[in-house]
Amino acid sequence: MEPEVGNAVGETAQAADASRVLLRRARMSLNRVTLGRLDTEVVGLIGVVDEMAGNAQALGQLAEVFLNKAVYGDASLYAQVASEVLRGVENERPLRKEIHDTCEACFSQHMDDDLLLGLCQYIAYLYRFNVMSVRIVHTCIITCLLGASIDKAHTPSPSGVIGVCDLLAICGPYMEADPKKVHYYITRLETIAGNYPTSVSAHIDELLHLYRNDWTGCQNRMTNVLKRRAVDV
User: Fold this and answer.
1) Cα separation of 207 and 202, whole Å?
2) What Cα–Cα distance (Å) separates residue 81 from each residue in 93, 174, 184?
3) What pTM was computed for the model?
4) Residues 61-79: pLDDT tens digits?
5) What does the DSSP assignment read for 106-174?
């Protein structure tokens, strides 16, 4: 019996339309998210993700929506939303994978200052909320400090330096399993601090102060980090 091509095409179009509707619902929920409405919107997002089950493309698009909202908005809030959604869905692994892959893929692209800073903060908070693996955190730091080719002679961009400072200020106290790596990052930043203007080196000085005082004051630092979206160089 010949396959019914027309029916197959129609079913594919219907599936694509359904995915677009789900993605639109997710965007609307994320646009309405505030700390006061967190629970309400998370419930809606959990339903959307459960309906996307088995649709890797739709979940990947949702992960991109999360990323875009976070890097140009409140990284902490959207990382928290992602965490709450993953805890509530029937199968959290597919969406978690798409969030990981989407963040990691950003490092293969050219990023402007705002995107790099926002991405570092988003990854840091995803790690804090147990969404992101520590491997991605290290990838983020190493890429910013040593470049994609892992060159110790690499000169990090000012936004890369500030991004690492932000990330370590958020994650540093929770990376106790990798004290030697954290110490290396801190030492590297201290070594290159003199190559940058005060507007950049001040971030390194602040991080060094936190590190030498057992990360005391990190909560205030995390609050201040969210207010910054540009680099003055």
Assistant:
1) 9
2) 16, 20, 32
3) 0.84
4) 999 999 999 999 999 999 9
5) HTTS---HHHHHHHHHHHHHHHHTT-S-HHHHHHHHHHHHHTTTT-TT----HHHHHHHHHHHHHHGGG
CB neighbour class for 83 (10 Å; exposed up to 12, middle 13-18, buried from 19): buried
User: Are the CB atoms for 50 and 90 separated by under 8 Å?
Assistant: yes
Q: CB-based burial of residue 228 (10 Å sphere; 0-12 exposed, 13-18 middle, 19+ buried)?
A: middle
Instruction: Quickly state the pLDDT bin for 200 (edges 50, 70, 90).
Output: very high
* Burial of 25 (C-beta count, 10 Å sphere; 0-12/13-18/19+): middle
Residue 43 Cα distances to 29, 135, 199, 208, angstroms: 10, 30, 42, 41
Question: Which segment, 82-86, 114-118, 153-157, is predicted with the most confidence on average?
Answer: 82-86
